[in-house]
Amino acid sequence: MLIALLVPLGLAILLFAFVLIRAAIAERAVPRPEAVLLGAVVSFFDTLGIGSFAPTAAWFKFRRLVPDKLIPPTMLVGLTPPAMTESIIFLILLGVKVDPVLLFGCAVSTLMGGLVGAPLVARARVWIVQSVVGVGLVLAAAAYAMTNLHLFPGGGTAAGLPLALTIAAVASCFGFGVLLNFGVGNYAPTLVMLSLMGMDPRLCFPIMAGGAALMGAGASVRHIQMGSMDLKVVVGLALGGIPAVLIAAFLVSKALPIEMLRWLVIVVVLYAAAVMFRSAYSGRKGGKGGPEILPAL
Predict the structure, then answer these.
(1) pLDDT digit string (tens) for 43-92?
(2) 45, 141, 144, 198: which is deepest, by most CB within 10 A?
């Protein structure tokens, strides 16, 4: 079953790479240096478990790199190549230990949710996208705080789940796939859900990474075809993120102050969430559904 997941994942990577490279060449999308550096930093710490979506969204908002409505698809497409790299590493190292039905079912379900969610975010009003991203940032900050305070469920030692819980997990992953299109990462909710069900937290990583990579490839192709992103930023995130994942996976020093970094990220993410909510409130109050006017920061 692991081979059954690695094969379509490999094909999805090839398809995604072809579509992205063709679009980048057609639009002459020269990567922005700031995006390359950002991709390297967030992907490095994503591999260590901090997460990449929330800090990326916060930086986008602070620096106004892309309009608010384009933040989710730009993040998703740009951070998919690093996520693919992570998924291959985690699947090879830990995938053989996970119940194959659970692993395959959750990955495919996340993909299906991603395909359904891609056109939804493209058609959504700006203030709705801003609100969803704001909620996602708050949830991410809460997850970081709970991790630092050791309040996350400890999990069990299981490598699989009973049939009823497997069905519930697969169904939930569909929802996580939809939300990924709106910039809400799937790592924290998947980890909490599976840990509460008794899974070994270490074995959740292949499920999370495999689902994110497969979903990212499928949904990203749709986003690229719709043109709803900043390709210069996308290419920059991808080019910076891939080598950073490899460095984090194989050359990381255990002396890194991960807990202190999480507290810093919490402050940044909460501020970005507040600004995002203010933008959403102003947009809804003004009845804006089209181009946005970003507030002064």
Answers:
(1) 998 887 777 888 898 899 888 899 988 999 999 999 999 989 988 888 88
(2) 144
CB neighbour class for 28 (10 Å; exposed up to 12, middle 13-18, buried from 19): exposed
Which of the two residues, 145 and 268, has the higher pLDDT score?
Answer: 145
Closest listed residue to residue 102, CA positions, set 216, 186, 211: 211
Domain positions in the chain are 2-286
Inform me whether the pLDDT recorded for 297 exceeds 50: no
* 107 sits in which H/E element: helix 100-123
Q: Which amino acid is at 125?
A: R
Contact yes or no for 79/241 (Cβ under 8 A): yes
Find out whether 78 and 236 touch, Cβ atoms under 8 Å: yes
Write down the pTM of the prediction: 0.79
Q: 123, 23 in Cβ contact below 8 A?
A: no
Q: What radius of gyration, in Å, describes the C-alpha atoms of the chain?
A: 18
Q: Which tops the pLDDT comparison, 186 or 95? A: 186
Q: Which amino acid is at 168?
A: A
Q: What is the DSSP string of 111-166?
A: HHHHHHHHHHHHHS-HHHHHHHHHHHHHHHHHHHHHHHTT-S----SBSS--HHHH
3-state SS class at 1: coil
| 125 vs 132: CA distance, rounded Å | 11
